[in-house]
Amino acid sequence: MNRDNINIALLFIGLILLQIIVLNNINFLGYINPFFYIIFIFLYPLKKIDGSLILLSFFLGLFIDIFSNSGGTNAAATLLIAFIRIPVLKIILDKRELEYSSLSISKLPFYKSLTFIAVLTFIHHFIVFSLEYFKWSNMNIILTKTSLTSIFTIVLILISLTFVSRKR
Amino acid sequence: MQQIISFLYKNKYFILFLLLESSAIFFTIQSHSYHKSKFINSANFISGGLYNKINNFKEFLLLKDENVRLAEENVQLKNLLNQKDKLTAQNSAKEADTVNFNQKYSYISAKVINNNFRKNNNYLTINKGESSHLKSDLGVINSKGIIGITKSVSNKYATVLSILNVNSRINVKLLNSNHFGSLNWNNNHYNTVQLLDLPIQANIKIGDTVVTGGRSTIFPEGIQVGTIKDFKTKNNTYDFINITLFNDMSSVGFVEIITNLDKEEIKNLEEKTSNE
């Protein structure tokens, strides 16, 4: 158990508590609650895919689901973005920028990290809302909710990432 | 054989991913079918306990509103009591025979510790469970009207399928004409629900009161639901009827759970009849 692991465990528990106690009750403009907890996927060290990230992201989503009575929607979405995190990064970055061991999201150029976060957040939110509504006829609601909530989440994540990178 | 093993080993993360993803989707599908989500709900020990703690803090802030509501209910009950005294005074000759009097419903009070009203399928969590003789499929009301039906029950907590849930169907009727319909929610606004299947013969007006129907064994007859807000007729049927709820579903504090003591008897009788 080194320091990184303890940090990850604290982050895991802290994000769950923050999400269910504060962020699930914001109801901005009536129904917008940011899914800020997915910042876990961005803060987790950028290594090649490993089993612990898959398991952690699944249980992170599942805990959120248990507390918000939403079946397995958050678990499915969080797991998927954890799995496609590195492939998406490969598309966004040049080949020579890809050195996982030294790479961290705060060291990327701003617009690249923004695209990375925006793409994954949008995918995550889209899956959460489509699984929640589960009907093609609700596509309008799904898309509006996805885009509005994504903007809120992305802004929150960017703000907290600047704080994190400044502290280091 | 070795090739299969090495193939599996190479793709072990992908297989793990597929396994977990399919279980997540399984939970999701389960949660969409009424009465089936067994494990993933907020009635379990961890989430129920945490919500209880959070609610203890929140309660301090809402004590004033809750007091006002209780005072209102007290006034209502006192009025009822007075009316009853009057009635018994008038009919003193034929007093109710207390030996033959059977209680039909029993009430358990509980506190809402978590409340959703912004989603597609909304649930509440309450702080009573099996240890207080709660089961699934019991009606939940408060002094202003209906709230929902209990769904999953753990030892100390239970979840309630709110009337603000697209899966919820509750039998209701009009107060003044005895026409029945079913209550549904179209996910538009947390204060407005829809009345379906009302026959056109029911001559409704805006402002008419809607109460529970008493056809199901869950709710007693005549519990308040709301008033008709607007409606539209099309092809000689009601296209839609919107109902404004008496209850403010965004702030629900104390609730009562109704147990129908004759439920088993009614169910057995109905099963017997359908088997014959």
Would you kindly provide a written description of the structure presented here, covering whatever features stand out?
The complex is a heterodimer of chains A (168) and B (276). In chain A, helix 5 crosses helix 6 (110-133). Chain A has a single domain (3-167), classed as Arp2/3 complex 21 kDa subunit ARPC3, CATH 1.10.1760. With 168 residues, chain A is an all-alpha fold. The longest helix of chain A has 29 residues, at 139-167. Chain A is built from seven helices and no strands. Chain B is an alpha+beta fold and 276 residues long. Chain B has two domains: 2-31; 41-91 and 105-261, Rod shape-determining protein MreC, domain 1 (Thrombin, subunit H, Beta Barrel), CATH 2.40.10. Chain B has helices spanning 2-10, 12-32, 45-90, 263-275; strands spanning 105-115, 121-126, 139-142, 145-153, 158-165, 170-174, 180-184, 192-196, 209-212, 224-234, 237-245, 254-260. A six-stranded antiparallel barrel of chain B has the order 1-2-5-4-3-12. Chain B has a six-stranded antiparallel barrel with strand order 6-7-8-11-10-9. In chain B, a hairpin with a 4-residue loop joins strand 4 (145-153) and strand 5. The N and C termini of chain B lie far apart (59 Å). The model of chain B has no long low-confidence stretch (mean pLDDT 81). The interface between A and B is medium-sized, with 33 and 34 residues.
In short:
The complex is a heterodimer of chains A (168) and B (276). Chain A is an all-alpha fold.
Query: What is the CATH topology of the largest domain in chain B?
Result: Thrombin, subunit H
DSSP strand content of chain B = 25-35%
Strand runs of chain A, count:
0
CATH class of chain A: Mainly Alpha
Spans of chain A of 5+ residues with little confidence (pLDDT < 50)? Answer: none
Low-pLDDT regions of chain B: none
How much helix is in the residues of chain A? Answer: 55-70%
List keywords for this structure.
heterodimer; A: 168 residues; mainly alpha; Arp2/3 complex 21 kDa subunit ARPC3; 0% strand; globular; B: 276 residues; alpha+beta; 2 domains; 30% strand
